[in-house]
Amino acid sequence: MEEEQAFKRSRNTDEMVEIRILLQSKNAGAAIGKGGKNIEVPRIDYSASVSVPDSSGPEHISSISADTEKIGEILKKIIPTSKEYQRYKGSDFDC
After folding, report:
1. Domain 12-88 has CATH 1.10.150.120
2. Domain limits of the chain?
3. What gap in Å lies between CA 34 and CA 44, rounded to an integer?
4. In this structure, what are the phi and psi dihedrals at residue 15, rounded to the nearest 5 degrees?
5. 21 vs 7: CA distance, rounded Å
6. Which range, of 27-31, 33-37, 67-71, averages the lowest pLDDT?
7. Could you give the CA distance from residue 14 to residue 71 in angstroms, rounded to a whole number?
8. In degrees, to the nearest 5, what angle opens at C-alpha 26 toward C-alphas 20 and 32?
9. Could you tell me the pTM of the whole model?
10. HEC sequence for the chain
């Protein structure tokens, strides 16, 4: 029993994590928003660090740093900006 408890991860939701998202260049502009609005909101509302550096290639790597609960909320706001999401909006994928 003690061994099982030793391997359990902490549920401390204040722990900062970083995720990286690979965006197609055509979606990067929408994720950033006009004047950077879409990445400024998570910075202010969630005290998160959000970056989408310029890339000359077909893809951008976006990074988001925040606590685990806030990252989920940020993704809920960013994902609907992608063109692929707009195409499948309202579809049921049995998720």
Report:
1. no
2. 12-88
3. 16
4. -70, 130
5. 28
6. 27-31
7. 11
8. 55
9. 0.65
10. CHHHHHHCCCCCCCCEEEEEEEEEHHHHHHHHCHHHHHHHHHHHHHCCEEECCCCCCCEEEEEEEEEHHHHHHHHHHHHHHCHHHHHHCCCCCCC
